[in-house]
Design a protein that fits this description.
The complex is a heterotetramer of chains A (337), B (282), C (328) and D (143). Chain A is α+β, with helices and mostly antiparallel strands. Chain A contains 12 helices and 12 strands. Chain A folds into 2 domains: 186 residues, no CATH class; 125 residues, no CATH class. In chain A, strand 11 and strand 12 form a beta hairpin. Chain A is globular, with a radius of gyration of 21 Å. With 282 residues, chain B is α/β, with parallel strands linked by helices. In chain B, strands 10-9-8-7-11-12-15 form a 7-stranded mixed beta sheet, sandwiched between helices. In chain B, strands 4-3-6-1-2-5 form a 6-stranded antiparallel beta sheet. The longest helix of chain B has 13 residues. Chain D is α/β, with parallel strands linked by helices and 143 residues long. Chain D has a single domain, classed as Rossmann fold (3-Layer(aba) Sandwich). Chain D contains 4 helices and 4 strands. A 4-stranded parallel beta sheet of chain D has the order 2-1-3-4, sandwiched between helices. Classes of the chains: A alpha+beta (337), B alpha/beta (282), C alpha/beta (328), D alpha/beta (143). Chains C and D meet through helix 7, helix 8, helix 10 and helix 12 of C and helix 2, helix 3, strand 4 and helix 4 of D.
Chain lengths: 337, 282, 328, 143
Amino acid sequence: MESLKLDKDKLKDFIAALDSKKVYAPQKVGETIKFAPVNGDLEVSLDFANTTVPPKEIVFPQTETMFLFEQGGTDINLTKGGAEKVLLGVRPCDARAMSVVDNLFSWDIDDPYYLDKRKKITLVGLACLEPPLNCFCPSVGGGPASTEGLDILMTDLGDAYLFQPLTPKGEQLCQLSSELLQPAGAEDNARAEELHREAEKKITREVDIKGLAEGLPSLWKSEIWKEVAEPCLGCGICTYLCPTCHCFDIQDEMEGLDGRRCRMWDSCLFKEYTLHASGHNPRPSRRERQRNRINHKFSYFVDKFGVTACVGCGRCINLCPVNIDIVDILSKVKEAL
Amino acid sequence: MNEKVNPYKPYMATVQEAWYETTGDRCIKTLKVLFDDEEVRENWSHLPGQCTMIGVLGVGESMISISCSPTEGKFLRFSVMRMGKVTQAIHQLEPGDKLTVRGPYGNNFPVEEWKGKRIVTIGGGIGQAPLRPIIEYVKANRSDYEGLTVIYGARTSADLCFKNELKDLRNCDGVSCHLSIDIEEEGWPHYVGFVPSLLMEVNPSPENTIAVTCGPPIMIKFVLQNLKKLNFADEQIYTTLENRMKCGIGKCGRCNVGNLYVCKDGPVFSYATLKNVPEAFA
Amino acid sequence: MVDLENLRTIAKETISREDVKYFIGWREGTYGFSVSPHFVREPAEADKLIFSPLCSNNLATYLTLAEKLPVPRGQEPDTRKVALMVKGCDSRAVVQLLVERGIEREQVVVIGCPCQGVIDTKKVEQLLGQPENVVRARWEKGKIICQLPDGEKEFIKEEVLAQKCLKCRYPNPVIYDILFGEKVEPWCQEEDFQEVKEIEGLTLQERWDYWQEKFSSCIRCYSCRNVCPLCYCEDCILDRLNPTWINRSVNISENTAFQLSRAFHLAGRCIECGECERVCPVNIPLMKLNKKLSKAVKEMFDFEPGLDPEAKPLQASYRPDDKEDFIL
Amino acid sequence: MSEKFEPNIVAFLCNWCSYAGADLAGTSRIQYPANLKIIRVMCTGRVNPLFIVNAFQQGADGVLVSGCHPGDCHYMEGNYYARRRFSLIRELLEYIGIDPRRIHMSWVSASEGAKWKDVVEKVVAEAREAGPFDQFRRNKINW
């Protein structure tokens, strides 16, 4: 597909041209950087590095109503599907994360809530030319300009964005604003490729994950897990803000006679996550919970779907209050194997 | 969203009959349930060992095994121990009350593969509920199986489920039933002691036999040891696992033991599979 | 200057004692300004211990965070002491835990570390970015010195120290068995509650809007609860399902209820170590809530928690003449 | 709406004094506003501050906690603890922007039927002034 170019000062017009769809872009909401709907008077800036809250919350909201009912009633009113959305400025790691999670939600039985939103979303990515410190996407199969999961890849060329449509959905989006986009020249493409290469070189953290999927279960009784879990607070930061973590809880809520069944993010690091009603807990301490977290990402998920459930975005490293560093853990695991 | 394909949308069902199997703090109640919708009733099919998410709107859902065999009729039966929030609400249901059912989920006991063999079920406490469908299934297809041995124990005689049915079993041809309680009681004619030792007492031969066990984790652990002592091969031993579940369809993530989801890959596992999963008996 | 040799000797001696289970201190993290709690079980591990302006974690949390797993049959429970390093604020958490009998005095060996303030990594990263290599820092003559790859950088306190440290009145540990280093002169005498007063000066609607914006970004990771040395209920009201006090769903109503109950459960107990605010991934100014209650407690009951191990817990005691001008 | 607005007040009354006081007001045929939803508790010491938060979440426009006068508590000191707790939650709620006219505490003894009427009238009048309180409602948000 032909590459296109958009002058930076026309970004606003570009967004306006997509008015049939809801456009989301990284914004500072309160004190947090997250994806939020773009409204007319807001200055859109794509200069944020990774958002604190990953865009998974657009396709897999933290809390989502599944259906409504009335106490004593027998009618179940399913939530209606949502609108078409465009996510602008998604980092390649977050887009890859969605294609990783797609595996799970379309496995065997389709999850209608996730897939409905996922199908109606167009991901316009932005290559990471200045990857933050704790990124390690190349180690887990991605890269600062990875195209997996994206519909369009944008690259910041200084005064303009290079648009590389990757899917029919991406092409359609470009057609909506065809008068703003100009064809890009060969030198633009070459420049972008060079920037991508340079960006990849800037990533310093790395870990070799070869052999982890088969090897991890052999470290079941290893002291590593104790070491990892000892400072762990058992909070949900690393899992809630992980773009590939997808576990959820289902709860019924009542208010007067109105009720809803909803689902919300859950974390394998919480005690109640696996707690049986009898009081028995198959994962009684943080040691087992951390072990499950790492195993799930690098072994179980690989067994089931053939991909690692980690995209190297570095959020869990950046935000962990006690410096539990997944790259560090994996290097220790590698050593122990 | 298409209503027909939403796996989270439960079917409404009505309690037909309800009775207590046992009494006490953690009492067990059995519900006989019929789907409200004729079409659902007709299209429903399940096999022994499968589970459903049953629930009460406004309270929540729990994964409960179906304790009847499809050979018994167009209804479902659940035997539920009172434990948490949802099971408490289920215990309050009386005939005519509504509950929600979705499923059936998980795999089943390979009862078709077992044809021509003798089956030994070893249950403890509420663990008899998922074994009951096997018993009923074998009874209904009696000529297909060589025989059936039922080994079942509970803490006291009052904690035994399905008492009357178990009594009737003795009259069936080729079926033997062995009961036990943990503590000596006046007037108890059967074995006193734990289920694993009753198993040794009964001493079933591994020849052309399948052993299925279900009960508290500690019992399963010793039953498995004893079955090995009796020379049962790993492939001849089956058990079921349980974990906290929310979705039932392999999405919510919490029921995994190692790389297996209990709700999808289980709840029925052969010991040959489980012995390599380190988390299985945690 | 922090004498690390001395610290490591203290740790080695302590861990060699028969009645000590482990020693909790700090070690360098894996990148930039990060620091991690360090559990020393063998004397050799003591060589990783550090004490610097980057050691912000309140280690008193680990006194109550340690899981009490069932002891296997035939084994005796391990009742040995836990040794831990505390800064001034952390030591108040230990005192408050003693007041509430969350721990007993003979369960801990307290290594008191007079502190001249810890660095707020969010502040310093804004100034310097995220350096790749581990940064070391030290206090020197009232200034903070950071060792960066391209040389040392000197900062005055206001530039890099955490807000709580700028107003710190207890830089010296209020309880300790072993004192590590020299006591320092407090640089702040009076708590002025300036931040609280600023919010109190707003109209009701402005306050509501201010807090709604903050609470709306809460993702309920419960990091603030877990990191708090004084949030140690076995069965937290937030995890309770039967009855459900606060729904798990994340929306402004439940988030507000959660934040209110978290703050309220710390009323008269918060020792202002600022850990909740430090760990919050969405930067909710939690200390502004906690401080409001500290102010109210100070004004109404003339009480400050975490100073006197013999004090009675504020909400488990009363005075017949407590203020009641609001009562109809 | 504002002319017709009738505030919804949740009142937590202690069994021994205020509940009996309200009862007395009733048997003495003292007229007082009917905006109250009364929840009887054994002692004001039972009133967890979360009850107040929860009441607001479920649509209360005002909350009243009422118990025995200091020194009269059936359990000797329950109301003293309640007073400390209430004074703190009141400060906190006001701090996050909830109108203090919605949050009240009173001492009403079993013999003070007339005082009960005054208290209720004041509580209702203040909540009415403060207006409807919807921002905190659970299901108004995004069900």
